[in-house]
């Protein structure tokens, strides 16, 4: 991995480099995506079936689009029993964590007869997109579905692309069954996003659409926002490790590569105050890359977006981490809690040498659907409230309104909205 001294110039160059990976920079695909969306919006199932044949090689129709109970049971039976048990335990951890996010409606009454409050209501139907093929991740099924189920969503549907034989990854089906998906449809790509956003004869329109996918899925989600709610427009995976001289270089290298293996656009960055650690991590990363199964992807990822930045002080390192606002942030320092208190921007923070990033991906409980490409500055991990609507409640008695009606009328008239003022005034004529 390249080792670079952290300076204002190198930090700016790095940020510009990382932003190139954002879905906002792939406008060459937007025309294709928009054509797919428009065709599915106008032609429904006809377009959906045609695109599935074109891109997935499967002859989809109204009879085979819905995954049958027998297919789900067969998938569960085919999985290793130990793996199935791990998926169940992971689901329990995720459910327990997200249960703590539930908020109750609240109402504040006053002696003058006024009442203010906030009513929390789950969306009616949520749609989850799950990648297929080599990018099938049962863990993402759990992370998307369980928060929706905890929120109380009435119906949760899922789309995932079929293989040319019409089959779905068995781990994906098992995870969907454990998480509590109501219906699973064999459809993928931008066409599946369009089907859930607009509705077809086979796939119902959803209110909220979540889940990861390739650049076509990301751009499709971005385009349908407004027709439906979405979680976010996710970019490639990323990890940033903040470390001092106390960190274990072998652990740091292994953790960096855990994200580099996702794809060639994944980002793996170490910021450290120790030049010695930087050199050791570079050596260890090279050794690991040579023997891991996805070594080719790892090497390209590190060549493209792998960096080791050596900072003068930990404060400089922390400032850079806040500016990068990484999806995953590991803190491997003598006092990780002290450093954590100074972090303002990160999707998920992992503290200490035994809190490796994959712990969050698979098992701990917090959601692994996280903001990427610097959006941790204003986005949060997927959570229960993403599947709930907040409605304001306002009730004033005549006595309560009488005390303030002249003030409201004055405010409305100052904005030139005399009908607003009149709506209050007529009650006291």
TrEMBL record:
<dbReference type="InterPro" id="IPR012131">
    <property type="entry name" value="Hstdl_DH"/>
</dbReference>
<feature type="binding site">
    <location>
        <position position="361"/>
    </location>
    <ligand>
        <name>substrate</name>
    </ligand>
</feature>
<protein>
    <recommendedName>
        <fullName>Histidinol dehydrogenase</fullName>
        <ecNumber>1.1.1.23</ecNumber>
    </recommendedName>
</protein>
<keyword id="KW-0479">Metal-binding</keyword>
<dbReference type="GO" id="GO:0000105">
    <property type="term" value="P:L-histidine biosynthetic process"/>
</dbReference>
<feature type="binding site">
    <location>
        <position position="259"/>
    </location>
    <ligand>
        <name>Zn(2+)</name>
    </ligand>
</feature>
<feature type="binding site">
    <location>
        <position position="259"/>
    </location>
    <ligand>
        <name>substrate</name>
    </ligand>
</feature>
<feature type="binding site">
    <location>
        <position position="415"/>
    </location>
    <ligand>
        <name>substrate</name>
    </ligand>
</feature>
<feature type="active site" description="Proton acceptor">
    <location>
        <position position="328"/>
    </location>
</feature>
<feature type="binding site">
    <location>
        <position position="237"/>
    </location>
    <ligand>
        <name>substrate</name>
    </ligand>
</feature>
<keyword id="KW-0560">Oxidoreductase</keyword>
<dbReference type="InterPro" id="IPR022695">
    <property type="entry name" value="Histidinol_DH_monofunct"/>
</dbReference>
<keyword id="KW-0862">Zinc</keyword>
<keyword id="KW-0520">NAD</keyword>
<feature type="binding site">
    <location>
        <position position="420"/>
    </location>
    <ligand>
        <name>Zn(2+)</name>
    </ligand>
</feature>
<dbReference type="GO" id="GO:0005829">
    <property type="term" value="C:cytosol"/>
</dbReference>
<dbReference type="InterPro" id="IPR001692">
    <property type="entry name" value="Histidinol_DH_CS"/>
</dbReference>
<dbReference type="Pfam" id="PF00815">
    <property type="entry name" value="Histidinol_dh"/>
</dbReference>
<feature type="binding site">
    <location>
        <position position="361"/>
    </location>
    <ligand>
        <name>Zn(2+)</name>
    </ligand>
</feature>
<comment type="pathway">
    <text>Amino-acid biosynthesis; L-histidine biosynthesis; L-histidine from 5-phospho-alpha-D-ribose 1-diphosphate: step 9/9.</text>
</comment>
<comment type="similarity">
    <text>Belongs to the histidinol dehydrogenase family.</text>
</comment>
<keyword id="KW-0368">Histidine biosynthesis</keyword>
<keyword id="KW-0028">Amino-acid biosynthesis</keyword>
<feature type="active site" description="Proton acceptor">
    <location>
        <position position="327"/>
    </location>
</feature>
<dbReference type="GO" id="GO:0051287">
    <property type="term" value="F:NAD binding"/>
</dbReference>
<comment type="function">
    <text>Catalyzes the sequential NAD-dependent oxidations of L-histidinol to L-histidinaldehyde and then to L-histidine.</text>
</comment>
<feature type="binding site">
    <location>
        <position position="129"/>
    </location>
    <ligand>
        <name>NAD(+)</name>
    </ligand>
</feature>
<feature type="binding site">
    <location>
        <position position="214"/>
    </location>
    <ligand>
        <name>NAD(+)</name>
    </ligand>
</feature>
<dbReference type="GO" id="GO:0008270">
    <property type="term" value="F:zinc ion binding"/>
</dbReference>
<feature type="binding site">
    <location>
        <position position="420"/>
    </location>
    <ligand>
        <name>substrate</name>
    </ligand>
</feature>
<feature type="binding site">
    <location>
        <position position="262"/>
    </location>
    <ligand>
        <name>substrate</name>
    </ligand>
</feature>
<feature type="binding site">
    <location>
        <position position="191"/>
    </location>
    <ligand>
        <name>NAD(+)</name>
    </ligand>
</feature>
<dbReference type="InterPro" id="IPR016161">
    <property type="entry name" value="Ald_DH/histidinol_DH"/>
</dbReference>
<feature type="binding site">
    <location>
        <position position="262"/>
    </location>
    <ligand>
        <name>Zn(2+)</name>
    </ligand>
</feature>
<feature type="binding site">
    <location>
        <position position="328"/>
    </location>
    <ligand>
        <name>substrate</name>
    </ligand>
</feature>
<dbReference type="GO" id="GO:0004399">
    <property type="term" value="F:histidinol dehydrogenase activity"/>
</dbReference>
């Amino acid at each position: 991995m390249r080792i670079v001294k952290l300076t204002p110039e190198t930090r700016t160059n790095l940020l510009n480099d990382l932003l190139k990976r954002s879905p906002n920079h792939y406008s060459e695909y937007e025309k294709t995506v928009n054509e797919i969306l428009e065709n599915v919006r106008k032609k429904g199932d006809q377009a959906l079936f045609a695109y599935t044949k074109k891109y997935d090689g499967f002859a989809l129709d109204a009879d085979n689009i819905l995954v049958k109970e027998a297919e789900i049971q067969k998938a569960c039976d085919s999985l290793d029993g130990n793996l199935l048990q791990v998926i169940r335990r992971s689901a329990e951890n995720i459910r327990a964590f997200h249960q703590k996010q539930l908020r109750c409606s609240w109402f504040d009454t006053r002696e003058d007869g006024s009442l203010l409050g906030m009513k929390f209501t789950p969306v009616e139907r949520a749609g989850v997109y799950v990648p297929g093929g080599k990018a099938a991740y049962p863990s993402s099924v759990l992370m998307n579905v369980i928060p929706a189920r905890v929120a109380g969503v009435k119906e949760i549907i899922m789309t995932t692309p079929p293989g040319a034989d019409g089959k779905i990854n068995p781990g994906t089906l098992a995870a969907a069954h454990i998480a509590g998906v109501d219906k699973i449809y064999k459809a993928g790509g931008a066409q599946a996003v369009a089907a859930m956003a607009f509705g077809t004869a086979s796939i119902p329109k959803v209110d909220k659409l979540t889940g990861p996918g390739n650049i076509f899925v990301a751009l499709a989600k971005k385009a349908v926002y407004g027709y439906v709610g979405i979680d976010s427009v996710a970019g490639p995976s990323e990890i940033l490790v903040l470390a001092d001289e106390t960190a274990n270089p072998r652990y740091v290298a292994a953790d960096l590569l855990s994200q580099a293996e996702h794809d060639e656009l994944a980002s793996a960055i170490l910021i450290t105050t120790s030049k010695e650690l930087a050199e050791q991590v570079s050596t260890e990363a090279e050794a690991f890359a040579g023997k891991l199964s996805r070594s080719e992807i790892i090497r390209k990822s590190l060549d493209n977006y792998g960096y080791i930045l050596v900072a003068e002080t930990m404060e400089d390192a922390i400032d850079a981490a806040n500016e990068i606002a990484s999806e995953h942030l590991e803190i491997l320092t003598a006092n990780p809690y002290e450093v954590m208190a100074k972090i303002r921007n990160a999707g998920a923070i992992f503290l200490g040498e035994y809190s490796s990033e994959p712990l969050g991906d698979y098992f701990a409980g917090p959601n692994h659907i996280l903001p990427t490409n610097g959006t941790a500055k204003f986005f949060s991990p997927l959570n229960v409230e993403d599947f709930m609507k907040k409605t304001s409640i306002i009730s004033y008695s005549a006595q309560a309104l009488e005390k303030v009606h002249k003030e409201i009328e004055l405010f409305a008239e100052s904005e030139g909205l005399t009908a607003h003022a009149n709506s209050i005034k007529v009650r006291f004529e």
